[in-house]
Q: What sequence folds into this?
């Protein structure tokens, strides 16, 4: 979800309290992982035994789920997260060129975080903006028709 | 009296600056002392016109678009609020051919009303289906759904009535309704538009489904890539709860039914119904072998009705207007309307709801207006990443489940992605395998390994190893027949359709070879 939420430093007690709020849910693990990531920016290794204990699961169960889903990160992302659509409808509207331009401008490849921590660039497969591509999410906010001046403008927002 | 101005809050409008347009219009109006009321709507589904600003006049709503934020001030000063003419004026919106030619049943209110207002929903005909359902027995509700001919809109096209009846008949201490809003197919956005543009319709549909099958709890699984749809739908659920429409206890003649929203985590395969159940249970999104069917033993082992957003959203209309009225539209065994999504390189991209049966020529050229780039159309991919690529010579295919199946294609969730003559179908075939490799849940071998072998085999073909074409065909056959679910089972569709219809793209790449047209 949106990465623009305020993120706070890791705190085991706070994490345990957040997970405890999910206990009453049916199938609480995904909501628990989401809340940990939204709060701390990632699901660090220290979180795994805490989640396992509070939800009465094995650490292997938690690890297995955490590493299955593309959304969950085990290390923090950059300060901005740019998710660029790489699926077919945006391809048909020229996303490959747009992504290449983004990579050059930001000095990184899809899947990487800049060494100064300014931005993480990720591929995403469809944002439901398939007749307005190329499309992207910047910290959860949608951007479309990302060509020419509109793409340049987005890049100045990512790296002022 | 204040002037009513309508600005979409759909993600497709927000992505091109609708919020800023709104702020500017509102500031300009207050500066000139003009009382205006801005209503945030869903999208009309004409994406090339977004942001489409509409102003109410005695003769209907007049539209202006596409309006970018840097044009909003000029628009306000040029007489927007008096609906004056302007270069960006498209005239009375309802008379635009793209809208006039549709039959909007599911999307009748989308882009028209404030989607967060339950009163607006009710005034526009909402809740009539639920009212009808409350006067019927569960058996009678299911009977209506069956007679309407409604088929699952998620892609498989399974008769909804049979599924509803199976869950209704199942005996258990509790049952569930699960709405599949994991709309991961590229080229589709109908679920997203409905979640943002008319969420109460889906809520009403889920309540009716609960009533019909005897479930008191509904889950909706929305993909994380749709943050705005998540926010819009959860607001609507809260409103419905406050109004007594949803809740853990019965009230006002309504049955106890509540909806819990769950957010996906970026796994495409969780759109597959059994992987979704695993994910809801808090597990890795791995596909389950069937049987047992989810209708018998689904979420937490209980009988579960899983339907796509559009399937559940069709239920209120069917009950309100009668099964015959719905079944009267359509083509062959595909009854009712389908929200078709025109995407990719297309001039009039967006959502076009029509009865089944239009052919691709009509959809791509006549309604879609051909490519946006002005280049010739070379291919369309229908039905998302698992759908076949069709060349223009197959554009006489009618939009109908059986007609597409007869040509080794599928309509899936109704997305049509148009590609111009620069597309390289070997690259698209390779991408299909690559996507399958990235998104495979890993449970079955044909999908997990076949997709990786597929990438390598296509690379060898492009490098000039012609004999590998037979290997690719064989591999696709194995994936199609041997995979547990549609991901591995249907990835051969885009791959083999590319090979069959565009063989020249699989010729060895060399200096002497002209680039693919």
A:
């Amino acid at each position: 979800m949106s990465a623009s939420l305020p993120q706070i430093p890791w705190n085991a007690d706070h994490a345990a309290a957040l997970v405890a709020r999910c206990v009453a849910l049916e199938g609480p693990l995904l909501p628990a992982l989401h809340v940990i990531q939204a709060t701390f920016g990632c699901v660090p290794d220290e979180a795994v035994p805490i989640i396992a204990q509070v939800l009465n699961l094995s650490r292997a169960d938690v690890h297995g789920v955490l590493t299955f889903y593309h959304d969950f990160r085990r290390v923090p992302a950059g300060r901005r997260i740019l998710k660029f659509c790489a699926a077919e409808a945006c391809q048909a509207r020229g996303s490959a060129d747009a992504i290449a331009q983004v990579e050059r401008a930001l000095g990184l490849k899809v899947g990487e975080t800049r060494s100064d921590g300014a931005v993480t660039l990720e591929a995403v497969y469809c944002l439901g903006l398939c007749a307005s591509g190329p499309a992207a999410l910047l910290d959860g906010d949608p951007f479309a028709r990302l060509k020419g001046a509109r793409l340049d403008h987005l890049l100045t927002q990512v790296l002022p | 009296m204040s002037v009513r101005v309508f600005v979409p809050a759909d993600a497709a409008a927000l992505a091109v600056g609708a919020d800023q347009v709104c702020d500017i219009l509102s500031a300009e109006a207050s500066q000139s002392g003009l009382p205006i009321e801005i209503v945030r709507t869903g999208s009309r589904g004409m994406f090339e016109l977004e942001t489409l600003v509409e102003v109410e006049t005695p003769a209907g709503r007049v539209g202006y678009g596409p309006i970018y934020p840097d044009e909003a001030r000029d628009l306000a000063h040029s007489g927007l609020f008096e609906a004056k003419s302007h270069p960006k004026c498209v005239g009375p919106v309802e008379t635009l051919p793209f809208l006039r030619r549709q039959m909007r049943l599911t999307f009748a209110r989308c882009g028209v009303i404030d989607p967060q207002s339950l009163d607006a929903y009710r005034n526009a005909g909402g809740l009539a289906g639920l009212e009808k359902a409350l006067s019927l027995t569960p058996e009678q509700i299911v009977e209506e759904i069956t007679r309407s001919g409604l088929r699952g809109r998620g892609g498989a096209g399974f008769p909804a009535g049979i599924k509803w009846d199976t869950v209704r008949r199942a005996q258990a201490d509790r049952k569930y309704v699960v709405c599949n809003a994991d709309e991961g197919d590229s080229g589709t956005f109908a679920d997203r538009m409905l979640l943002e543009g008319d969420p109460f319709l889906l809520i009403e549909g889920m309540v009716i489904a609960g009533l019909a099958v005897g479930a008191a709890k509904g889950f909706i699984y929305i993909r994380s890539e749709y943050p705005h749809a998540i926010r819009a739908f959860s607001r609507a659920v809260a409103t419905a709860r406050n109004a007594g429409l949803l809740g853990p206890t019965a009230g006002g003649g309504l049955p106890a039914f509540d909806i819990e929203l769950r957010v996906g985590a970026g796994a495409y395969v969780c759109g597959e119904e059994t992987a979704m159940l695993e994910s809801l249970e808090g597990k890795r999104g791995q596909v389950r072998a069937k049987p047992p069917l989810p209708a018998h033993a689904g979420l937490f082992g209980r009988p579960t009705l899983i339907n796509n957003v559009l399937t559940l959203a069709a239920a209120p209309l069917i009950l309100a207007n009668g099964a015959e009225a719905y079944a009267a539209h359509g083509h062959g065994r595909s009854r009712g309307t389908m929200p078709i999504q025109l995407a990719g390189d297309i001039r009039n991209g967006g959502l076009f709801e029509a009865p089944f049966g239009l052919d691709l020529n009509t959809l791509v050229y006549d309604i879609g207006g051909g490519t946006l780039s002005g280049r010739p159309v070379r291919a369309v991919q229908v039905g998302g990443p698992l759908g076949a690529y069709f060349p223009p010579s197959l554009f006489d295919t009618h939009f109908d489940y059986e007609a597409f199946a007869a040509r080794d294609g599928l309509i899936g969730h109704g997305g049509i992605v148009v590609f111009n003559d620069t597309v390289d179908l070997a690259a698209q075939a390779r991408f299909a395998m690559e996507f399958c490799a990235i998104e495979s849940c890993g449970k079955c071998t044909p999908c997990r390994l076949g997709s990786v072998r597929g990438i390598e085999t296509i690379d060898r073909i492009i490098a000039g190893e012609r004999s590998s074409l037979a290997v690719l065909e064989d591999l696709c056959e194995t994936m199609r027949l041997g995979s547990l679910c549609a991901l591995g089972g249907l990835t051969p569709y885009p791959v083999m359709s590319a090979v069959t219809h565009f063989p020249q793209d699989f010729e060895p790449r060399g200096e002497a070879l002209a680039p693919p047209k």
